[in-house]
Design goal:
Oligomer: single chain
Largest sheet: 5 strands, parallel
Helix content: 10-25%
Radius of gyration: 22 Å
Distance between the termini: 36 Å
Strand order of the largest sheet: 3-2-1-7-18
Bound molecules: flavin-adenine dinucleotide
Shape: globular
Length: 378
């Protein structure tokens, strides 16, 4: 009987385990994770204040419960340190294990913020439940939060914090939020809606240094402007965790490179979720990893199944002005056709023949996302 090892207890690792168990109750599966293995849905981290949930309340099941429910071995607090792809063995900080099939669901690391100054080491990033618990402790009883980065995660935290009564400054290099996904009109509408909630924007700027002061921190921007804050949250992006694969000689690009079967350059080693680059695409969102988990579970249980993505719009959880976006392929020809209404914006990315290639919808227009997604080929 073959032995499957999954590394990672995020949505990717656990969703794969659940999908395997739907198909096969008996193959031994061991899931190894460096963290405590509690099951939680990561997207909830950036709207938990509004939802009235503590970090502890976001964990819906312990590792022990997951192991019992899914009839698997879950090794928590265990870090995989190296992979011997020839011998099909992994070395962990608790010993060695042999595998027949190995799945890397390692996630991504926050970018290093590169700040200097006496308070730089105190800047926080939130990428898992433990980070979030630390963030909630840090903001407890404080008021002023400086958020570095106005991408998806920065905007969602800004909305959640401002809604909860915090004074929020967002420092963002782009000229409008989510500028790589949204045309200017849509980004500006989101920025205005968050500003109406009390968010102060610093566009075209980066944070340079953070100094401790008598009552908190002083963040100095690249133009010399300063922002006073009690807590600094860095949300400038994530980098797929590729080091383990790279050290094992497995080809990596932005993520761990795989084919459509999610197999890496090493036989019997697979990658999925935020760490994976599937035929050149690294899609660090929930829906792609769900599609990957279903396909890989079929493959691992004897039915080789390539990943085929449907059109997958991403919802930005900014209740002040929600956004649904399905970006066109990188390098797609054509341009945005933007219609601005009082309650929302509909931006369609059309090619020269008028064919829909992507869209960005805001406010009331987000209700059209599923209909429009059907018009875009998988
Ligand atoms: C605040 C926030 C909000 C988000 N909101 C949305 C949203 O609204 N919609 C959406 O689609 N996406 C959203 N995302 C993205 C989405 O949450 C991620 O794509 C998804 O959770 C990634 O899951 P994962 O399992 O690949 O990675 P992770 O959840 O990061 O899990 C990685 C796992 O690997 C383990 N690990 C890593 N290295 C090792 C090692 N060497 N040994 C052992 N274990 C190891 C870690 O301990 C962890 O258990 C959001 C992300 C964030 C941070």
């Amino acid at each position: 009987m073959q032995r499957i090892i999954i590394v990672g207890s995020g949505l990717a690792g656990y969703t794969l385990l659940k999908e395997i168990r739907k198909r096969d109750a008996s193959t031994p599966v061991t899931l190894i994770t460096a963290d405590d293995g509690a099951f939680y849905s990561k997207p909830n981290l950036s709207n938990a204040l509004t939802a009235g949930k503590s970090a502890a309340a976001l964990a819906s099941a312990s590792a022990e419960k997951m192991a019992a429910d899914l009839e698997a071995t879950v090794l928590t607090g265990t870090r995989v340190e190296s992979i011997d792809t020839q011998g099909q063995r992994i070395r962990t900080d608790c010993g060695e294990l042999a595998y027949d099939k190995l799945v890397l669901a390692l996630g991504a690391d926050p970018f290093a913020h590169g700040l200097s100054g006496s308070g730089a080491a105190d800047a926080l990033a939130v990428n898992d439940l433990a980070d979030y618990a630390a963030f909630r402790r840090a903001i407890d009883g404080r008021m002023r939060i400086a958020v570095l980065g106005g991408g998806l995660i920065g905007c969602e935290f800004a909305n959640d914090l401002a809604q909860a009564g915090y004074a929020v400054d967002v420092v963002h290099l782009g000229a409008w939020p989510l500028e790589r996904l949204l045309p200017v009109e849509a980004g500006q509408r989101l920025a205005d809606s968050l500003a109406a909630l009390g968010v102060t924007w610093h566009f075209g700027r980066t944070g340079k240094s953070v100094e401790r002061t008598a009552d908190g921190y002083r963040v100095t921007l690249d133009n010399g402007e300063t922002v006073a804050a009690d807590v600094v949250l860095s949300a400038i992006g994530l980098r797929p965790r590729t080091q383990l694969a790279q050290a094992a000689g497995i080809p990596v690009g932005r993520g761990i490179k795989t084919d459509r079967l999610l197999e890496t350059g090493a036989a019997n080693v697979y990658a999925m979720g935020d760490c994976a680059e599937v035929e050149g695409l690294n899609l660090p969102y929930v829906q792609p990893l769900m599609v990957q988990a279903r396909a890989l579970a079929a493959t691992l249980t004897g039915t080789p199944t390539p990943v085929v993505y449907p059109a997958m719009p991403v919802m930005v959880k900014t209740p002040a002005h929600p956004v649904a976006v399905l970006p066109p392929r990188i390098g797609a020809a054509g341009g945005w056709k933007v219609e601005c209404g009082d309650t929302g914006i509909c931006a369609l990315h059309l090619d020269g023949a008028g064919r829909l290639q992507g869209f960005a919808l805001t406010g009331s227009e987000t209700s059209r996302r599923n209909t429009l997604a059907k018009d875009i080929a998988a």
